[in-house]
């Protein structure tokens, strides 16, 4: 039965729109851009909102205080992830880091990612990022044939954001493939990048569309229906998608193993961990391995299965899935942030001009491209980057966390199993924190009026990467690589509105997609 009918009176839940009997607030949730709806609720219900879908509680945390009090300070019970039958179990995504239940495995995975992309190691990749950003720029300006060389920052091709998304995903995907797997993308039809593209499309537009909640997640009994049963097409799809996801995880990983065996592996996240594991094998230091589950065994290639210890199997799976998670989590997110940047530049030629003037002064007549050494001398460009993160809000409702114990916060009851959404949108659009919040205003980051602690809380980086023990492990990488792409584009390109036949500028028609990421579509010119 429903817990609140017996033990806890409904009035003790955080406030929220009134649910219908049984189905709850389903109809309150089905609007486009759910974050806009959730934002409206904050006006009526304040710092926390509660809604439910059938018996599943959804809790939106709408203020920095509520978010940090729960997701940070009570991280021990607010760091689990929803158990998704369809996405996790049936489609095999349960080992991806963003879906991993909170516990030993999640902690091991995060430790590995910390090694790869923790704040202390990012500067090691600066050279590589600078190197990889060059082909990105040249692909950008050479893809359409009409480049006009006599203009320094030159204009004049028509783009749809999709064309650019493609190039950005090649850049960030290529970079991650190199760092994580030691694979260098050389051609336009790289098999690993093509596979990633196909799989990310399946993941975000098929498996996780609608927040990843399928009827079978609400009625788990559906999964026991036989596959031929009418209406069970989700199970047939799941079989196909699961095979694809496994290929996505296994192929680049097996590539590294092959390269190691041949003695030709380029040093990478995976190769270094595998080599370290091999050399510590002799001294046998691993402890506390989980018992190998069916899943673990199934993941293993036949030739090695027989002589692997449970510890080896565990480590092998940790590396395999962590590598894929970093690779797959980096692509759509970075594309989204850069699309927001371009949109802001198209809509604010004055900001573009000021950023370019600053760059010109620093880069001088040499007309070289910017590097990380220049960052400290480019405060306005940095402000443009910070404001892009605040204004764009790439993941407006964060990824849901799941609370593992009944909890009470300021007199409100939060039931075990509730999904908790950090309402990042509500915070970054809060006029008391960021006056005139809809406006794109880099100036707001130029004068320091707060002490260090307040400043840190005010910085959009405290929000856009999520919270507590699940906070995005790629955040330091993003701060470097996205900054570099932005200033490289500012240094070499003009970004303009489209024009009609008679040369008159057209306001971009902007369309946001209703999904986990705040993807945006529009046209512009470079
Ligand atoms: C601008 C780009 C990015 C944004 C805005 C972003 C944002 C986020 C957010 C909001 C979360 C959810 C955090 C939470 O549950 O509280 C997350 C998780 C994650 N991100 Fe990112 N991310 C970006 C790029 C990257 C990159 C480049 C990587 C590569 C290392 C990455 C890897 C991950 C992983 C593995 C998770 C799951 C962490 C976990 O559940 O423990 N992200 N990211």
Automatic annotation (TrEMBL):
Source superkingdom: Eukaryota
Cofactor annotation: heme
Keywords (A to Z) from UniProt: Heme, Iron, Metal-binding, Monooxygenase, Oxidoreductase, Signal
Residues that hold heme according to the record: 472
Pathway info: Secondary metabolite biosynthesis
GO molecular function, a single term: iron ion binding
Chain positions covered by the region annotation Disordered: 281-311
InterPro entries attached to this UniProt entry: Cyt_P450, Cyt_P450_CS, Cyt_P450_E_grp-I, Cyt_P450_sf, Cytochrome_P450_fung
PROSITE patterns in alphabetical order: CYTOCHROME_P450 (PS00086)
PANTHER family in UniProt: P450, PUTATIVE (EUROFUNG)-RELATED (PTHR46300:SF7), P450, PUTATIVE (EUROFUNG)-RELATED-RELATED (PTHR46300)
Family (UniProt): Belongs to the cytochrome P450 family.
Protein name, entry field: Cytochrome P450
Biological classification of the source: Eukaryota, Fungi, Dikarya, Basidiomycota, Agaricomycotina
